[in-house]
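Kindly go through the entry underneath: sequence plus fold tokens. Please state briefly how this chain folds according to its tokens.
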Amino acid sequence: MFQALLNKTKGDRWIWLIIILLSLISVMAVYSATGTLAYKKGEAVEKLLLTKHLIFVLMGIGMIYIAHLLDYRYYAGISKVLMIITIPLLFYTLIFGTNLNDASRWVKIPVIGLTFQTSDLAKLALITFLARMLTKKQENIKNVKESFIPIMGSVCVVFVLIALANLSTALMLFGVSILLLIIGRISIKQIAIVCAGGFVLLLFVFFLGPRRKTYMSRINTFIHPEMQHSDKTFQADQAKIALATGGVFGKGPGNSTQRNFLPHPYSDFIFAIIIEEWGTVGGIVIMILYLVLLYRCIKIVTRAPKAFGALLAAGLSFSLTIQAFANMAVAVGLGPVTGVPLPLVSMGGTSMIFTSVAFGIILSVSRDVEENANALTKEEKEKVKNKIIIGEIPAIA
């Protein structure tokens, strides 16, 4: 049965290996980091882990498998539906969403009572929608009225709606959008206008938004070392202690002490717990896994036969790796504190599900690349190779 399932698994084998390794690391790291949470809830850590995180990890792998079997071209149509749902949902979240840590980012699902972060859905919706629009508008991509305004309208609306409650996620999504615009052949002049407009929106959110005090406090404590070791830097200070005591090889799995002091050690600061238990070596291994993921995704992008597949794989892979390194940067003190989880590692149901769908879509594009490569005869492969070498075929054509 397992062999039959394995035979049906398509796509880049290295990405599948990275998914399995990150999932295993996630289970071990979360198992260790949730000890204090389980104690506070009066539950055994095994029960808390098995009834929540492990189930979501298995669901995530199932979602990856299902998503990678679906032809990625279907996501072009799905992206329209997702955008229609996402924008009103982001409005609803700002007004009626569940408030946690002075931020309204979550919506409670009726009946089952679970909450999910709408920005996770928005990231997936915007990236797939941008890939579709950039592909559809390639013939008149330089036209401001027909191409630029519709594309940038969706980016700006989603950016503002997310930034009002979650600036770090909005900035990362905006950065991914700019990268997609560059790959999608939007002119440098138009991209400069986008960046200028984004900067104006950023100033508006930063100085006039509902969370302006939180944003300014985090920036101030990051750029002013004299403010360290105060109640405002408690999270960053505890993360630094975890890093310092971890050493080269760490204290060993399950031996973290900072999990008892560090807020959210199983999500936002799980990388600090990993270094404390597995040392600098463990942290480097995690970084290498994400770098290999980015490298394999870039190979998929350059080999994708259709522009939509290339843009889709590029956008999703950039989103995952930028988020991963943002999380790690915060954990090691290279950036102000944010609420960004480590993809496929941090504890969090909706984050795990939407991250898994993103992985599945990337593998769907990879599967299409493999099938197209296998369909070519040896002679045809040589012709295509020669055309690429002399520059007759553009990278995302």
